[in-house]
Amino acid sequence: MGLLVAVGVPAIQIGYVILVEHLLSLLPARTQRTLRPGLWLAPALAFLATFLIYPAVYTVYLSVLDARSAAFVGVRNYVFAFTNREMLIALRNNLLWLVCFTGLTVGAGLLLAVLTDRVRYEAAAKSIIFLPMAISFVAASVIWKFVYEFRPAGAPQIGVLNAALTALLPGFRPVAWLVNLLTNNLALITVGVWVWTGFCLVILSAALKGIPAELLEAARVDGATEWQVFRRLVLPSLSPTIAVVATTMVIFALKAFDVVYVMTNGNFNTEVIANRMYKEMFTSRDFGRASAIAVLLFGATVPIMIANIRRFRQQEAIR
Amino acid sequence: MAQALQPLRATLRRAPLHVVLLGLCALWLVPTVGLLISSFRPPRLVPVSGWWTALVPPYQFTLQNYRQVLDAYSMGRSFLNSLFITIPATIIPVIVAAYAAYAFAWMRFRGQEVLFTIVVGSLVIPLQMTLIPVLRLFTALGLAGTFPAVWLAHTGYGLPFAIYLLRNFLGALPRDLLESAAIDGAAPLTVFVRLILPLSVPAIASLVIFQFLWVWNDLLVALIYVGGAPQVAPMTVTVSHLVSSLGQNWQLLTAAAFISMVLPLAVFFSLQQFFVRGILAGAVKG
Questions:
Q1: Which residue ranges traverse the bilayer (chain B) (predicted)?
Q2: From CA A241, how far away is CA A206, in angstroms rounded?
Q3: Range 15-34 of A in CB contact (< 8 A) with B
Q4: What is the pLDDT of residue B284?
Q5: Which residues from chain B sit within 8 angstroms of residue A244, using beta carbons?
Q6: Which of A107-111, A115-119, B184-188 has the highest mean pLDDT?
Q7: Which residues in chain A have their CB less than 8 angstroms from residue B100's CB?
Q8: pLDDT digits (tens, 9 = 90+) for B26-49
Q9: Which of B42, B58, B130, B265 is most enclosed, with most CB atoms within 10 A?
Q10: 3.40.50.2300, 3.60.15.10, 1.10.3720.10, 3.30.70.1170: CATH of B75-280
């Protein structure tokens, strides 16, 4: 069965173009030129329409219907999305994710890009920071749940964070990082930062290397301090790249799901929008509310979508 | 004397740089090292002592945890499921995207710009916008809870980025090369197979790694479309269930998590440069 699929599916796909080209070759050259692009695009367009465009439109429609999609309820689901207590916590937390996750990943990525640029073990250091990118958020959640493991004061701490702090700070009382209302959201965001900083590092580091070395040397020769070089030359040249990286991080902050689902499932005020939507969909079976929450999430990404399209248009104009 | 001290002084001045950088690297590595070591420790020691105590003699390590999660907690089954989900869900979108990218980059047609703008726009559509309608569709077709549902969904979700990446790469290929091939009367299919595909191997390699890691590490799509059914659940779903059911059995949880990390880590270490190249080629995946 497995082998059949592994061979069969690509065979069908390859067969498709061969068939298309064979049929086209029977037609006059002009007709061929008109029909060919559509036929090469057809499989992709069919997938995009079925799995992205049509469902997105349909979800907007479902968001004004009731739980079982039977009756029109107007904006009731949206009123719920902005007034329900759990939803308000989720909105607050996503804002926290937006600010802290984006700030920390981009900040740490920038710092590490500058630092690694100056040492001989650059490649090794980058690999270490980049490594978590290969790990699933589920595995990362297990890794960090173990880091945050809490035992009451006096008992041997088996979580490395509480153990290190107890050993280093006299009088430190172990903290239940994922339960404590002051620390738990930041504890979750830390996991996201640990995974995604490598992504920011790789992109920012490549951009940093694109700045002409003579430019920086000239400034240093003229007596500029390292900080001035960074502030006046490096940072301005990197700012377009920082903007791109930051928008990507914003999208991930908005859609944060796996870490929260696995580590706390939104308990102790750690709820986020995406997990709320999952719960409305599967626990409460309220498709109206779940759809309204999804539309809310989509609405937050629309400005980014527009910015991406603008940037793409500009790039195309230069080509 | 002062001359002899010069290199030493330079080293000292750079010391803070090394301390900060090596400190950050250690910070990034320690959590994973802790997981790896704990997964090899005997069950009776894990709850009573930190994993770092295992670094000094007497060394006590065991494979028992791995045996247990593979047999009793269906991690073996899940590993195969993950493979069975990931391989087709990587191959299908890459082929579909290659056709579309070829059309976008090297054919002229009406509506080309509008269509590609839609592709760029759909890069950031949150999956949440699609879950309910697609699940209904799969249920109506009898596909919910099956492998093909996950393959199709991942193909749809992965396509915008795949088309975007490949089209940008193909669009940057030298124009003369392809035009001379067209003048020589080569059929479009021949140009695609003999010229385009060989030239785009680096881009396709990046894309394959990207899609592979994305699907292998995905939780949400698997959770929605295969649900809890253990006979089709990939490792991410199984491990997330174990987190709630095993609770404090850290030696088992860490072993299970490590099994789920082995393959992506191997891919990462052997093909890191392609992965990095893919990210640099414009990663705005949603």
A1: 20-40, 79-102, 114-138, 150-170, 191-216, 250-271
A2: 10
A3: 17-18, 21, 25, 34
A4: 42
A5: 284
A6: A107-111
A7: 40-41, 43-45
A8: 999 999 999 999 999 999 998 888
A9: B130
A10: 1.10.3720.10
CB contact under 8 A, B91 and A38: no
Q: If pLDDT is split at 50, 70 and 90, which confidence band does A1 have?
A: low
Q: What is the average pLDDT across B103-119? A: 92
| Mean predicted confidence (pLDDT) in A107-132 | 94
Residue of B nearest to A108 (CA): B24
Which run of H or of E encompasses A74?
none
Reported as a pLDDT band with limits 50, 70 and 90, residue A5 is: confident
**Separation between Cα atoms, residue B137 and residue A253, nearest integer Å:** 29
What are the strands, taking DSSP E only, across chain B?
none
Helix B75-106 to helix B147-171 angle (10° resolution) is 40
Distance of residue B127 Cα from the nearest chain A Cα, in angstroms: 8
Domain that holds residue A15: 2-62
Domain shared by A55 and A202, yes or no: no
Same domain? A80 vs A153: yes
Lowest mean pLDDT among A5-9, A150-154, B162-166: A5-9
Asked if the Cβ–Cβ distance from B121 to A309 is below 8 Å, we say yes
- pTM for the predicted model, two decimal places: 0.92
Whether pLDDT at A3 is above 60: yes
CA A115 to chain B, closest CA, distance in angstroms equals 7
**Best mutation site among B20, B27, B28 for testing chain A: the one with the most A CBs within 10 Å?**
B28
Q: Kindly report the nearest CA distance between residue B18 and chain A, in angstroms.
A: 8
Other Cβ atoms within 10 Å of A217 Cβ, number: 11
Interface of A with B in 130-159 (CB under 8 A): 130-139, 141-147, 149, 156-158
Do A275 and A175 share a domain, yes or no?
Answer: yes
Tokens of B112: 């080309």
Substitution target in B194, B211, B240, B285 with the highest count of A β-carbons within 10 Å is B240
The answer to the question of residue A71 being in a domain is: no
CA-based radius of gyration for chain B: 25
Domain count of chain A? 2
With b meaning 16 or more CB within 10 Å and e meaning fewer, what string describes A142-177? bbbbbbbbbbeeeeebbbbbbbbebeeeeeeebbbb
For residues B158 and B276, the answer to whether their CB atoms sit within 8 Å is no
Please judge whether A53 and B35 are an interchain contact, meaning their C-beta atoms are less than 8 angstroms apart. Answer: no
CA B64 to chain A, closest CA, distance in angstroms equals 19
- List the structure tokens of B97: 């995207």
Cβ–Cβ below 8 Å for A52 and B130 = yes
Residue A319 pLDDT: 64
The dihedral formed by the CA atoms of B145, B147, B151 and B152, expressed in degrees to the nearest 10: -50
The closest CB to that of A56, out of B92, B125, B272, belongs to B125
Report CA Rg, chain A.
25
